[in-house]
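Q: What structure does this chain adopt?
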Amino acid sequence: EDSDLSYLIPDKAGEEKRQAHFRELDLNEVLENALGILPERDKEIIVGRFIQEETLEQLGKRFTLSRERIRQYERPLLLTIGNYIKLFYPEIAAEFVKEVVLKWIL
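A:
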């Protein structure tokens, strides 16, 4: 009769706070975490190609690989990063893809 049944009511304010937290996550921090799972060479290729905007030729010379081989590395590495983000940051995965990955590719 005097029991509190408030625990049965969904906490909408709490859910909104949780969603706001994920929106505030720094995309750079997410990217750094995702890059952290890659072997050092793969990380250097992705950083060089998409962050430092090196050309395929420049990266090829640096890693003694052909431009085509560097290009072939890109897709699986980007998929690895995308899968990591979907797994560990599902709430911002779509936003991350829009803000970061599509900018890299286009």
